[in-house]
Amino acid sequence: MNVIETSGLCKQFGSHFAVDHVAMAVPEGCVYGFIGPNGAGKSTTMKMLLGLCHPTAGHVQLLGKAMNDQNRLALLRQTGSLIENPSCYGHLTAEENLQIVADLKGVDKKDIDRVLDIVHLQKDRRRKVGQYSLGMRQRLGIAMALLGGPRLLILDEPTNGLDPAGIQEMRALIAGMPRECGTSVLISSHLLSELEQIIDQVGIINRGRLLFQGPLTELQKHSRGDVVLRLLHPEQGAAVLQRSGLTVRREQQDLLLPPLRDARLAELVQALAAAGAGVVGVTVRSCTLEEIFLNLTESGVSAQ
Amino acid sequence: MLHHCIAAENRKLRGSPIWVVFFLLPLLSAAYGTFNFLQNQGVLRFNWYNLWTQHTLFYALFFFSPLVGLYAAYLWRLEHLGHNWNLIMSQPVPPLYLFMAKLAVVFKMALLTQGWMLTLYLLSGRLWAKLPGLPPAEVFLWALRGALAAAPVIALQLLLAMLIRSFAVPILIALGCGLAGVVLSSRGLGLVWPYSLMIAGMNSNKTEDALAGSEFSFVLSCLVFLAVFLLAADCLLRKQDVKA
Amino acid sequence: MTAFFCELKKARRRWDWLVVAGIPLCVLLWASGGAPASGDERASYYSSLLYVLPVLHTVVMPVGMAALASRLWDAETKGCTAKLLYTLQIRASLYGAKTALGAVYLTAVVALEMAGLLGMGRLSGVTEPLDISRLAWTAVSTLAVDALLFLAGSLLCIRFRQTLLVMGVGLACSLCGLFAAYMPVQFAYFVPFAYFLPLSCVGLDWNFETRTGSYYALPFQVPMLALTAALAALLLVLGWRAVQNKEV
User: Fold this and answer.
1) CATH, domain A224-286, list 1.10.10.200, 3.30.70.120, 3.30.365.10, 3.40.140.10
2) Cα gap B133→A221, rounded to integer Å
3) I want to staple A77 with a disulfide (CB 3.0 to 4.6 A). Which of A107, B92, B176, B221 is the partner?
């Protein structure tokens, strides 16, 4: 089952589409990374999932049910969220803030100890939140989302303001959620290197449009980069390659070819060797997720 | 579910400076009212009724509506700051319950204010003015009526504070509307303006009951205004996008 | 000047002008409720309004000025911009610019009120000749006390981030000021936020037996006006110091 499913989801402000026909599908039991540059439409999409913002068009389903007035309360009871900046009442302590959320969610107050323990705020539970650092407020926001053990967590850049140790802890916590608590997680970020380590599924959005959605391994297939050939006689080699219909670029002494399948590459190496070009080295460059993301978002072309 | 929302709202008031205002304003009103009562014994009669008019005249005419406006503005201020709109509107409670919880809490504060004012009235009457006996039962009814009449004003002020993300402006509006209420009351139109209902309910400038014979219209007016403002709040909360 | 124009830019879409118009509207609305209506009474229309205005100001202006001060300073509190602004401009210029904008607002409040008063007189077909000096004195004294109230509100906004406190104090001052209106006039000298009363330029002789009154001109209380201006200047200095010393 998909815990989140949208079809044709749009949000229009005047003539500008902040979210443009997004068809998102988040499978149950996974950590789904929702990636996009600033202003891509991540937060707006997440707000529509929670009913904070009304879609201009399209439908939202959470946990297999339509997100409408009838189902809204039941769905939100099983959902935890942290959207935009962390929310808190600065004049109250962390414990009091969590008591308020526990009241509204109808959750046992004993759960407060559990979530404070998870985010390592036990020591500061009786301090006023107004005195907290940004990282501590972020952790409190996550604690509020975790109250009640929700089936679905929607987290908008949850590692903002955390130090490296905090980011690592948060990563470990989120990665373990499906396995340990049966919670599916939708997490947005623009810190791709950190998401890469914890997500199973990825959705890339830019200018309101979903450019890619699928398993991370599928995206990593796009990570195959240029082929670098080191030849004793590069001019001879270039001529052979051009006769084969390939676009060749020079990089100092090396020749660069676009990404090729292994079989095709093997054929070309044989042809080069036969032509006496003197093949010294063959290297396949791989793109990082960041490079793939930048390629996708700059070109704006869907990789589906 | 509503009682959970009310519990949450009550928690938000912990340690808040609003209690200073709650305590101070009726105290000022009582102190002056008693002083004026004793200074003007040539004009006023030495009885509990006249002490009541001196305690509540200015309070009901001018200050009760900005005071409830201040309570309402404070409760919404907590949500306007700190991106708390996202938090409360993503909770599994009907949006109207969030509004009604605030209404309940401000109403409780208005009731406590009336109770405090009554306590001061009793204490200053017995200990300062040295009035004999006890106040007539009607004054308790008038205080309760004033609290009932506060309900539609509280709903409207909560609506204004929800929409106008400024702390001061809804309070200024409450003062202006309260003044309009004074003018309308003096022209016999007290029951068609929510802010005049408090003046009529508390009976603060007459010693005989100003609402005698029109209690039903008074209660109906309170309930109709309350229903209209609750409906407006429900509509706005459900239809508008949340802006944190 | 740059700082002042920045303040004007910050005021965009803040609808401060609605507050500026709303304050004299409250006063005039209330005044119209008790304004003379019959033929004989219209012969003392302006005098009756100038007589009652100080009491109306005592109720409305503390809350109104607290609201204006709050509008100007709350923008910095809500946006947490102090830590940015204090690296971009000297603190005194920020305070000066907000005070200058406040002065513009106060002048507009008083001007609108006086214009409204004249308008009401014209519409009511008043027969009393208008004493321009009385009107001018009322305008100047109202402006002076409004400035005192506004600067007090600004000082509270700078010292305490809680707007609740500013508005609560405004309400308390309104209440106390109103009480002062019904105490012996000497009491009002100790209540600066009620200085509208001792600065009044119209008195009333009330005959209890015939239940009629006649208005008369009071001498202009220039020393009182000077005291008001001096207190306003003191609050200006205190506010400036508060901005300088504020920890951000």
Assistant:
1) 3.30.70.120
2) 92
3) B92
